[in-house]
Structures are given as structure tokens and as C-alpha cells.
Amino acid sequence: MQSQPVFNHRWLPWLLLLPQLAITLVFFLWPAAQAVWQSFLMEDAFGLSTEFVWFENFSVLLQDEIYHRSFTTTFIFSIGVTALSMGGALLLAVMADQVIRGARVYRTLLVWPYAVAPAVAGVLWMFMFNPSIGILSYLLEQLGYDWNHFLNGDQAMLLVIIAAAWKQISYNFLFFLAGLQAIPRSLIEAAALDGAGPMKRFWTILFPLLSPTSFFLLVINVVYAFFDTFGIIHAVTQGGPGGSTSILVYKVFDDGFNGLDLGSSAAQSVILMAIVGALTVVQFRYIERKVQY
Amino acid sequence: MMSNLSLANIGKTYPNGHQAIHSLNLDVEPGELIVLVGPSGCGKSSLLRMIAGLETITDGELHIGEQQVNRLEPAQRDIAMVFQNYALYPHMSVFDNMAYGLRNRRTPKAQIRQQVESTAEMLQLEQLLERKPRQLSGGQRQRVAMGRAIVRQPKVFLFDEPLSNLDAKLRGQMRIEIKRLQRRLNTTTVYVTHDQTEAMTLADRLVVMNAGRAEQIGSPLDVYHRPQTPFVAGFIGSSSMNFITGRLDHHQLQLGELRIPLKQKVDFNGEVIVGLRPEHLHRGTDYPHRIELDVSLLEQLGADTLVHGKVPGLDQELIVRLKGAAPCEPGTRLSLGFHCDELHLFCANSQQRIN
């Protein structure tokens, strides 16, 4: 049995791989290498002189209170986004799984937010919560709650978490729904005959059987919260007020392009790269094991 | 546990107007094994699921024991079901699979252990209690599925084509095992299958279903010997019954050129469908009626031979089951005899038995 294709030409496989390799090289490896190189350099604010400083950028960073705070912020932000987007998606998926009439319309509507660009999603939520003209902040004010995320750091954090989670819910929803539909109906029926009510069935049968999906989504969502939420932060709070929503990836941009501290910015992106690497390793280890029941 | 089950005018109409079950009546005696048999789509699985509470009953009344259970949740009906795909919980060990129902009913731990272990012993599963379902063979999974049903000691067992995923040999073994277990536990059982061998061997009584109706309810031999409709006659019996259309006139049966005076009195004149089982055509000379068969094809089964052929003057092809090796070659003519009381007569219009 010949299960793998055989190429008779030595160069053909390389030719076929070339476009992908070129893209990886130009858009990932090269900038990454540049970032690593840059992280060892220190420049003056006008870019006139450059000095090779070994690990000084890193050691400064590790002692920097603001950088530590950014770590904590990122931590809170990513836990919030992951929990909200996964919890919300699971709830919606369980409900959508039970819809019989018009199920497709329902599902299509739930998937739409994924097609919205992060910055647009951010702007959407920003307008709804805008302290002067936002409809939701107006409603909150009627309820006696003063909403102003331009001044209140906690409110700003909550807003970017909601905006970022809202966008990701669609993606999680699709995976959870597919996971739920892959569970044979007869298992649920057997559990019902075995005397388990709906809640018990969910926690003892459905949830454990969804765990491979959940773990996969956990990794994806953490990566999303860490790196892909730049647009939302930039559109809604620009890291403010007072750096309270300045997550690591936003701080890379802010320090580099606003603060013009290119060395520190590069060092931060190298640290971020290491985190992505670690997360990817976890993910691949896991996917290789696939199912754990 | 002995409990009777009664279905009174049970019917099912789907919201789109499709009527899956037409007013069905059945009284299952305590400890009886009823087999629902029929071709796919005849409504037998729907009926079983209605008894289980997995489908709503739109007409009629369902009683388990003394209680009317139409509106009860599946869990409250005190029944257990074995599914076609076993429906074992893949993330739980065999022990946990069997204990799940007991735990949900808040049975004390010690009692759960004792009950699961004794059930496992009965099914020879003691060695497998710590395994996960994926580490089991098909037959073992099947036994775990039965164990999960047995361990709760329900009032009624429901089996939904439980053997259809097994290979032929294992199916034969499990069939016997199910029969023995049911006898031993003496639990009222409803068993769904499309396999007529399974139906014949397992059933105390058969319900032959067709297009949502019970065509005939009776003991396997009763159904075999006195099928009420051509459908039942054709469905029950391996190598299907031969059907020939003919005319009945003053107790004289006309089949092509063949004229058979009937011994029994049948008050019917007109078009009839005549059924004759392949095993009721014989080679010997001591049979009052004879036909000549032009042999076209032989199927050698070892113990038996199935002979296919045509009788001059009749349109339909006949199948004959003869003992032993083939007595002839294709292309030759074979003389066969039969008794007229082995003929099944059905009215061609009403499709009902008339003799």
C-alpha cells in the first residue's frame, strides 16, 4: 500500500512549499529576528544614535512597576475575556442545540459577530457605553449608576472585556455547538432514563464529553485575549485611563510608537513571543493526545 | 420484578400530520417477552420510544403496573432501555456506567457496590469493571449495556435492536444470553428487532408491525402457522413464503391450470392470494397435490437446498426448500408435492386470511 505521494523530482516539493515558506520568512521570521536584535539595542528618542546594551532592556523591564502592572492587567483581562466568551458561548450552544424550529437562522445570527473587525466591534461597544451619548450608559444613569469609562479604570476594563468577549463568542459557539452535536442523542436519552435531570445530565455527561473542545478553546481564547485584542483596546480606551487597560500587546505598541522607546518595545515583544511559543507547545502537546476519555 | 404493561389505543401523530402509530392495543403479561418486529420505518422503534417516554404519546393510554404513565418523565416510569449503539457513557468506567442510574436515585454507596458487583458477576463482567467502554469488544459493550439496565431492577426492560451491531456468530450467542437472563430475572420485556429469526426465537408473543399498525399479535408458532395477512406471511419465515394469485370457486381453488379441491370449508368466492412456504413443498410421492417446477437456480446451504424455478402456467417464481444436497440441475424439471392444508389463503382485496 502506497499511502504517501511520491515526488520524482527533488525540487518539486520545495517549489510547492516555496510560497508558504516565503510568507513565513518575510512576515514572521524576519521581523521576529529584527525584534530580537532590536531588543538588545537602545536608541535615543530621535533615532540618531544606537547602542548595543545586551540585556539591559529586559532587566529594566523586569524591574518596572508599570510593566508588572501591565502583566496583572493582561491577566485579569484574559481571564475575563476567556471566561465570559466561553461561558456565554457554551450557554448559547446548549440552548441552540435544543432549538428545532428555525435552528439555522438562529445559528447564522449567532455567528455574525465573528465577521466584525475587532476595531469595529470596539467602536460599537464604545458608542453604546459612551458617557455622553451612549444608550447603555444613559440607561445605567436612569438606574442611578454613573458610567464613565474615560475616568473609571474598572469600568474601562469591564467594557473592553465585554467588547472582546462579544466578538469571540461566535467562534466558541461554533465549536461548542459542533461538539454538542457530535455527542450521540442516545447518551442523553440513556442518562434521562437513568434518572438524571437536565442539569445533572449537563454536568455529568455533556460537560465531560465537551472537555477536549473546551481545552482547545481555552488555548485559543487565551491567545486571542493576549494578542488579537489590540484593535479593541486601541479603539475603545487606548490603554487608559491611566494605563488601566494597557495589556502587554498594547503596551508594546504604546511604548514603541508613542513612547518611541524602540528597545524596550522590542524586548516586550520578544517576551510576548516566548509566551505565544509556550502556549503553542501546550496546545500541540494536547492536540496530539486528542481525546482523554 | 413482575409488572404488566398495557397499551390501549396508543397512537402517534407528528405535528406535520404524519401518523406513525395507528391505534395500537397490547396487553403485556408480567414477565412476558414481547417482540416488536417489522421492516424499517414500520414504527416499531417509535412505539418503543413512546413506552420509554422519549417520544410523546398523542393518543391512547399507557399503563405500567397500575399507573397511567402517559405524562411521566422517562426517569419516573421505572424502565430501563438497551440502545442499538449501546449508549455507554464513554468517559466513565464500566462500574460507573452501571452505577450511574443508582447514584441518581440516591442509593446508598454500599448497596450500589453490592448491586453492581452481583450484576457484573451474572454477566461475567467482574474483570472489566475498571475499564472504559472504548477498551471493550462489541460483545462486552453489549453486556455492559444490559448490565446497566438490569442493575436498577426496573419494572420493564426495553431493547431497541440491541444485537444489530454485532457479527452473526456473536449475535447468536447474545440472543441466547438475553433469553436466559430474561427468564431468570422474569422482567417484563419489550424487544424491537427487524430480524425475524431473533423475533421467532426470543418472543413469548410477537407483534408484527407494518406501516404503523400491528398486523398480527400472537405466539411465534401461531404467527408462523396462521399468518393473518400476506404481509405477515411473507415477513415471518426465513426464505420468504411463495405467493400465487388464483381464484376460489365453491371450494375449488384454481391456480393456473391446476385445480385443487379444498378439504376445509371456505365460504369465499373470488380472487385469492395463495401462500405456500418453501419448506412445505416436498419431493416424496405421498402428497395429494403435485406441481412441476422448471428449475432455474440452486442455492446450496449444506443442510438444505433452495431451489428457484417456475411452474408452467403460473407467473410467479417459486422457491422450494429441500433437505440435503440438490437433487437436480438447473434446466431440469422437478416434480413436487404438497398438502392443501398447508396453503394459506388470503382475500386479494381485503388482504385478510380466509381459511
TrEMBL record, chain A:
GO cellular component annotations of the record: plasma membrane
InterPro entries, A to Z: MetI-like, MetI-like_sf, UgpAE/MalFG_permease
Gene3D superfamilies noted in UniProt: MetI-like
GO biological processes: transmembrane transport
Keyword Cell inner membrane among UniProt keywords: yes
Main location: membrane
Family: Belongs to the binding-protein-dependent transport system permease family. UgpAE subfamily.
Assembly mode: The complex is composed of two ATP-binding proteins (UgpC), two transmembrane proteins (UgpA and UgpE) and a solute-binding protein (UgpB).
Protein name: sn-glycerol-3-phosphate transport system permease protein UgpA
Lineage start: Bacteria, Pseudomonadati, Pseudomonadota, Gammaproteobacteria, Oceanospirillales
Automatic annotation (TrEMBL), chain B:
Designated name of the protein: Carbohydrate ABC transporter ATP-binding protein, CUT1 family
One Pfam assignment: ABC_tran
ABC transporter domain ranges (all copies): 5-236
Keywords recorded for this protein, A-Z: ATP-binding, Cell inner membrane, Cell membrane, Membrane, Nucleotide-binding, Sugar transport, Translocase, Transport
InterPro entries: AAA+_ATPase (IPR003593), ABC_transporter-like_ATP-bd (IPR003439), ABC_transporter-like_CS (IPR017871), ABC_transpr_MalK-like (IPR015855), ABC_transpr_MalK/UgpC-like (IPR047641), Mo/tungstate-bd_C_term_dom (IPR008995), NA-bd_OB-fold (IPR012340), P-loop_NTPase (IPR027417)
SMART domains xref list: AAA
One GO MF term: ABC-type transporter activity
ATP-binding recorded as keyword: yes
UniProt KW Hydrolase keyword: no
NCBIfam families registered for this protein in UniProt: PRK11650.1
Cellular component per GO, a single term: ATP-binding cassette (ABC) transporter complex, substrate-binding subunit-containing
GO BP field: carbohydrate transport; glycerol-3-phosphate transmembrane transport; glycerophosphodiester transmembrane transport
Record-linked Gene3D superfamilies: 2.40.50.100, Nucleic acid-binding proteins (2.40.50.140), P-loop containing nucleotide triphosphate hydrolases (3.40.50.300)
